């Protein structure tokens, strides 16, 4: 409604809502996590610093995503999101020794090959045309 009534663009609206979003996330973390874990020692603020850092990083990630969306397309943001998931899987394997199943490795390979195809679509189309997978001059067929 604000986008239409006030004629705000999406990025301006995101900047206007990022501070309330941060307050909601911090408040929810304080309320929901208070009874679950043991309370931190009164002199130790390590846990609350981690919660605060998590909230700040979440807001910054959303700001970066929407800024990227304003500069590129939604498909580019989606492809970068897939790359983020692959990066998280690889980092968890390298840093924490997490076990990945064969299906996880197949998913990583498919995601990376899909990103290659997305980034090099003209090269793939010219290769497929040379190999006669499809003809460019036929109507309704091919690229």
From TrEMBL:
Keywords: Membrane, Transmembrane, Transmembrane helix
Matching InterPro entries: EmrE-like, Sugar_P_trans_dom, TPT_transporter
Domain Sugar phosphate transporter as annotated: residue spans: 5-118
Major subcellular location class: membrane
Superkingdom of origin organism: Eukaryota
Pfam families: TPT (PF03151)
Any single GO CC term annotated in Swiss-Prot or TrEMBL for this entry: membrane
Membrane-traversing stretches: 12-32, 44-63, 75-96, 102-121
Membrane topology label: Multi-pass membrane protein
Localization terms from the record: Membrane
Family: Belongs to the TPT transporter family. SLC35E subfamily.
Function text: Putative transporter.
Protein name, UniProt field: Solute carrier family 35, member E4
């Amino acid at each position: 409604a604000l986008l239409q009534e006030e004629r705000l663009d999406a990025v301006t609206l995101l900047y206007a809502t990022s501070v309330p979003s941060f307050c909601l996330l911090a408040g929810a973390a304080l309320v929901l996590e208070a009874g679950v874990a043991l309370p931190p020692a009164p002199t130790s603020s390590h846990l609350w610093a981690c919660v605060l850092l998590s909230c700040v990083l979440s807001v910054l990630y959303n700001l970066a995503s929407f800024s990227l969306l304003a500069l590129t397309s939604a498909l580019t943001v989606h492809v970068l999101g897939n790359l983020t998931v692959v990066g998280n899987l690889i980092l968890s394997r390298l840093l924490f020794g997490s076990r990945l199943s064969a299906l996880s490795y197949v998913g990583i390979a498919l995601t990376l090959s899909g990103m290659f195809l997305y980034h090099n679509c003209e090269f793939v189309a010219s290769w497929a045309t040379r190999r006669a997978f499809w003809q460019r001059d036929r109507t309704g067929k091919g690229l």
